[in-house]
């Protein structure tokens, strides 16, 4: 079954080329498997790379961008579907509702905030969609170390590890999403 895959990632053009290469590979796989790319609508950084690459491989691209960011002149207007929102909150809501799965490429505060919100919403049973961290170049290792500290300090149940998947490469990220079978999320994640 073809999916609408939301990819959270950086708009920075200053990041290492290894992240651009991963973004290209991921976007090419999304397009090759006839999935739809849903992303933040920008034409710069990893965002621009995934949109342009998906298009170059014949994929469908849906951009969701806040009006204020669009007005900065960085929108990818060539998207097959382009949604302009009033703010970031509306953008996140539309992306969450519209998408079947979520992948976080390496990114900054926005990427982290978006993915952590999706984990929290899944923990609280507001959705049961696949969530994937694409851990290129061990980028997310410090975050996962923090997660372990949170589990060990009993601020979150260690069963919350099952709410997300850590992929080391784009192929395993897409395979996880394609093979994903939702599990019932019980209230046990709140009990220690």
Task: Identify the CATH architecture.
Answer: 3-Layer(aba) Sandwich
Helix content: 40-55%
Q: How many β-strand runs? A: 7
> What Rg, in angstroms, do the CA atoms define?
16 Å
Number of domains: 1
The CATH class, by name, is: Alpha Beta
Percentage beta strand: 15-25%
H and E string: EHEHEHEHEHEHEH
Main sheet characteristics: 7 strands, parallel
Instruction: Give the mean pLDDT.
Output: 95
3D shape:
globular
- Low-confidence runs of at least 5 consecutive residues: none
Structural class: alpha/beta
Cα separation of the termini: 36 Å
Provide the spatial order of strands within the biggest beta sheet.
4-3-2-1-5-6-7
CATH-assigned fold name = Rossmann fold
Question: How would you summarize this macromolecular structure in one to three sentences?
Answer:
With 192 residues, the chain is of the alpha/beta class. It contains 7 helices and 7 strands; from the N terminus they run βαβαβαβαβαβαβα.
Fold blueprint:
Layout: E1 4-8, H1 17-32, E2 36-39, H2 45-56, E3 60-66, H3 67-70, E4 81-85, H4 88-98, E5 101-104, H5 109-123, E6 131-134, H6 141-152, E7 165-167, H7 170-179
Parallel strand pairs: 1-2, 1-5, 2-3, 3-4, 5-6, 6-7
Helix pairs in contact: 1-2, 1-7
Structure description:
It is a single chain. The protein has 192 residues and is α/β, with parallel strands linked by helices. The protein has a single domain, classed as Rossmann fold. The chain contains seven helices and seven strands; from the N terminus they run βαβαβαβαβαβαβα. It has helices at residues 17-32, 45-56, 67-70, 88-98, 109-123, 141-152, 170-179; strands at residues 4-8, 36-39, 60-66, 81-85, 101-104, 131-134, 165-167. A seven-stranded parallel sheet has the order 4-3-2-1-5-6-7, sandwiched between helices. Strand 1, helix 1 and strand 2 form a beta-alpha-beta unit. The radius of gyration is 16 Å and the shape is globular. The mean pLDDT is 95.
């Amino acid at each position: 079954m073809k999916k609408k895959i939301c990819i959270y990632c950086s708009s920075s053009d200053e990041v290492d080329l290894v992240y651009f290469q991963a973004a290209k590979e991921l976007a090419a796989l999304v397009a090759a498997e006839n999935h739809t790319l849903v992303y933040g609508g920008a034409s710069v950084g990893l965002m621009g790379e995934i949109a342009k690459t998906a298009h170059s491989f014949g994929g469908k691209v849906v951009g969701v961008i806040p009006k204020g960011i669009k007005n900065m002149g960085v929108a990818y207007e060539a998207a097959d579907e382009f949604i302009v929102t009033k703010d970031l909150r509306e953008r996140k809501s539309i992306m969450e509702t519209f998408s079947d799965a979520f992948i976080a490429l390496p990114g900054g505060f926005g990427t982290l905030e978006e993915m952590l919100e999706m984990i929290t919403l899944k923990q609280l049973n507001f959705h049961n969609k696949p969530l994937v961290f694409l851990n290129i170049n061990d980028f997310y290792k410090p975050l996962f170390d923090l997660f372990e500290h949170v589990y060990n300090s009993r601020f979150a149940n260690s069963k919350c590890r099952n709410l997300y998947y850590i992929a080391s490469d784009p192929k395993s990220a897409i395979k996880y999403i394609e093979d994903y079978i939702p599990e019932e999320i019980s209230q046990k994640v709140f009990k220690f």
